[in-house]
Design goal:
The protein has two domains: 144 residues, Rossmann fold; 50 residues, no CATH class. The longest helix is centred in the middle third of the chain and has 17 residues. Helix 1 runs parallel beside helix 9 and helix 3 packs parallel to helix 4. The chain contains eleven helices and four strands, in the order βααβαβαβααααααα. Strands 2-1-3-4 form a four-stranded parallel β-sheet, sandwiched between helices. The chain is 46% helix and 12% strand. Helix 4 links the parallel strand 3 and strand 4. The two termini are 27 Å apart. It is globular and about 55 Å long. It is an alpha/beta fold.
């Protein structure tokens, strides 16, 4: 199923493989996102965050007539524009996308400060994926003891540093598959990070869930009579 005259649903340009695997995991749970299932095509920009920020629109211009929608995702940290708020960066990218032919069919998601902000939640699945299941002290207590998480905080102030240190301590290799596992297991409703909330809203608008009975097997009704 595609949108109108476009042969494919969605192209996603990301800053790195970790981000690609995280978004793949999110899209695989389309029912939890409250959207219909799509078949996305991913590309990693060779210039990573700065490339997505400044030249992502040029990269995606080649695909403007092939895909119904386009997404650009990057970290604010490492983009070269760390002093600019994410909303301004997103608006700048979206303006360039619109001018390059996408109109209102494309969106930008700038994660503040970085992808690992989406990783941290109070879900016990985080402990399991990061190798901290049944460890003493528990992961969140260890984070607090090491000054990586303040009492009362839900997420570490430096989420990437906290993730890397937690993995080293657990002697668990860091890989893109970790981001896929987390995205596939953690409760998506509990993540209230603004960039994640925007991503879900965009996907729900572009790809609303199929109503019961839509796209059904035309012979199903006959078989169940």
């Amino acid at each position: 199923m595609t949108n109108g005259q476009f042969p494919q649903d969605l192209i996603v340009l990301v800053a790195d493989k970790n981000m690609e695997f995280a978004v793949k995991g999110i899209l695989s749970r389309f029912q939890s996102v409250q959207m219909r299932e799509v078949s996305p095509v991913f590309h990693v920009h060779p210039e990573h965050d700065p490339g997505c920020l400044l030249r992502g629109h040029a990269f995606l211009k080649l695909f403007v007539n092939r895909f119904a929608h386009a997404l650009i995702l990057l970290d604010r940290e490492g983009s070269g524009q760390e002093r600019t708020v994410r909303e301004v960066l997103e608006a700048e990218i979206e303006a360039r996308l619109s001018q390059s032919g996408w109109g209102n069919r494309a969106a930008a998601i700038v994660i503040d400060p970085e992808l690992e902000m989406w990783v941290w939640s109070d879900s016990p699945q985080i402990d399991s994926v990061l190798g901290w299941e049944n460890k003493n002290p528990a992961l969140r207590h260890w984070l607090q003891h090491n000054g990586l998480l303040q009492v009362g905080q839900v997420k570490p102030g430096r989420p990437k540093e906290a993730l890397e240190r937690a993995l080293r301590t657990a002697r668990k290799p860091r890989s893109s598959s970790l981001y896929l596992q987390i995205a596939q297991k953690v409760n998506l409703v509990r993540c209230v990070d603004p960039s994640f909330v925007k991503l879900k809203a965009v996907l729900q608008e572009w790809f609303p869930p199929v109503e019961q009975g839509d796209d059904c097997d035309p012979g199903a009704a006959e078989r169940f009579r």
